[in-house]
Amino acid sequence: MLMGAAILIGGLIFAAVLTKGIGKRKKRIIWGITTMLVIAPLLSWLIGMSYAIYEGDGFAGIGVMLILLPPLFLAGLVILLIGIFKKETN
Length: 90
Prior knowledge:
Elements: H1 2-18, H2 24-55, H3 58-85
Helix pairs in contact: 1-2, 2-3
């Protein structure tokens, strides 16, 4: 689990460094992709495995992961689509 947390934190730091000093539109696109590909799977895995260890049942962890992954992924998709389609105003 420590490796998953390290990858998640590394991905967040990478996205933060990558978006420093650029426009809102590109920031939303980068954060949407990061949310879909890094945050959603790793965060749902970390929470699911923590719950599985707490309960002592691996199926409970898988259930939590399956519940958490789609909403987090959709949140990233919404951020990405806002970044793609919203006009940048001054």
